[in-house]
Amino acid sequence: MFKDKKVVLGVCGGIAVYKAVELLRLFVKAGADVSVVMTRSAQEFVTPLTFQTLSGNPVHRELFDLYQEKEIGHISLADRADLFVIAPATANIIGKVAAGIADDLLSTTLMATRAPVLFAPAMNVHMYENPIYQRNEASLRELGYHFIDPDHGALACGYEGQGKLPEPQAIFTSAQNLLAPQDLAGQSLLVTAGPTREELDPVRYISNYSSGKMGYAVARAARQRGAEVILVSGPTFLLPPVGVTLLPVVSAAQMRDAVMQALPKVTAVVKSAAVADYRPAATATEKIKKSDDDMTLKLEKNPDILAELGQNKQGRILVGFAAETQDLLKHAGEKLKRKNLDLIVANDITQCGAGFDCDTNIVKLLHADGQIEELPQLSKDEVAHQLLDRVVELLAHRPQEED
Ligand code: PMT
Q1: Which one of 118, 147, 351, 358 is most buried, by most CB atoms within 10 A?
Q2: Which pairing describes strands 278-280 and 228-233: parallel, antiparallel, or unpaired?
Q3: Is residue 327 part of a domain?
Q4: For the chain, what is the domain count?
Q5: Ligand 1: residue whose CA is nearest its atom 24
């Protein structure tokens, strides 16, 4: 998303400036060309050298810097930007922009830009709740400026309340959302992710190695592209993507119930969860004790959620995943047909860099019309976007709703 994009990171004075350093690292890691503009107060907290070293670009500080005016200039900085992110944004900069005051480099550049602007406010809770601040924020929002709400918590001033700068990853995700094509706006997607756990007794369960990374990447990417997203997730250690409705479940039966409940609201379903096909026929209420004998477990079949969805599509786009260890195309193709899917994402989990619990995947996309696309090894985020490109196409050509 940020590859070759020019981001201007505006840094104002506040104890949270240290988080802007981490935010800069995230932008740089994502391939953005970042120009940092620091206010005078920001420089009291962290030196420009830190931002200069990490961005690889000179830090802009003064409105009338003759060298920079010739080389870059505040107007050119404003014109070249694809995105402005102000973090931390003080009540002062927000008040200035709301009032049309341009008396330093950051406020002048902000007045001159046509790029989207994201403010990440951080301040004392009483300042944040002050009706003057709230009026300024509301009027900027109305004009199309974007805001990420500050977090609640212990503030540097000793107070407890709303006013903390959100974590850099949350600001980064909001910034990503502003640059993503909004080609899923108006659509609602249901995504499943992670493993299910089938309880044997209060201390044991049957499960698999799914980390949830693939499904969470799909949910995150769909949200970035403007969709309303419901994420039905088995147990994972992942944070839910910002702006996504998370429905946590444990077992396949619970996943089925959550999916069926959310279904009427959605236009497409992406099922990346690794659902256990079988569960113990009985769940012991007490811990099963070891005996001298071997033990045989009786398993019974879980509902096949995706197959059930395929029997009653009602115009919805259905995307499945297939994790295979052999005959990838054959097995994935069978699942595509049997479950009545529009697309199946086949991953050969024996390949290094593919499948369970890694950050990349190597997939083949099998379409209902027989077309097969082979993608190279990509990050799970990139796989998610590739998959959603196909979902956008499918939604555009989907059949009218059937009874
Ligand atoms: O979570 P990660 O660590 O990132 O790993 C990603 C992944 C390997 C889990 C993911 O890429 C993947 O392949 N998910 C599907 C795994 C799977 O077990 O597929 P399957 O072949 O058993 O099932 C085929 C499809 O039917 C899947 O979309 C599955 O969600 C669905 N299914 C399966 C069984 C069942 N009872 N109900 C279902 O809905």
Answers
A1: 118
A2: unpaired
A3: yes
A4: 2
A5: 322
What's the predicted TM-score (pTM) here?
0.79
Q: Is 157 a catalytic residue?
A: yes
65 and 132, same domain (yes or no): yes
User: Which of 125, 157, 179 delimits the end of a domain?
Assistant: 179
**pLDDT band (50, 70, 90) for residue 173:** confident
| C-alpha dist (Å) from residue 78 to 94, 121, 239, 335 | 17, 21, 34, 51
CA angle, residues 395, 396, 400, in degrees to nearest 5: 75
Quick check: 157 pLDDT over 80?
Answer: no
What is d(CA 392, CA 388) in angstroms, rounded to the nearest whole number? 6
Q: How confident is the model at residue 77 (pLDDT cuts 50, 70, 90)?
A: confident
The two three-digit tokens of residue 346, written as one number: 């086949």
In a domain, 402, yes or no: no
Q: Verify that 23 and 122 share a domain, yes or no.
A: yes
Report whether pLDDT(95) > 80.
yes
The alpha carbon of 323 and the centre of ligand 1 are apart by a number of angstroms equal to 6
Model confidence at 243, in pLDDT bands (50, 70, 90)?
confident
CA of 324 to the centre of ligand 1 (A): 10
Which of 206, 275, 318, when mutated, tests ligand 1's pocket best, judged by the most ligand atoms within 8 Å of its CB?
275
Provide the residue range defining the domain that includes 80. Answer: 6-179
Closest residue by Cα to atom 10, ligand 1, is 272
Minimal CA–CA distance to 37: which of 87, 89, 106? 106
Q: In CATH, what number is assigned to the domain containing residue 60?
A: 3.40.50.1950
pLDDT the model gives residue 403: 47
Contact between residue 299 and residue 281 where contact means Cβ atoms under 8 Å apart = yes
Examine the fold and report which residue of 179, 196, 212 is the final residue of a domain before the chain moves on.
Answer: 179
355 Cβ below 6 A of ligand 1: yes
Whether 17 lines ligand 1, by a CB cut-off of 6 Å, is no
> Has residue 358 been placed in a domain?
yes
CA-nearest residue, atom 18 of ligand 1: 274
Task: State if residue 302 touches ligand 1 by the CB under 6 angstroms criterion.
Answer: yes
Residues 354 and 284 in one domain: yes
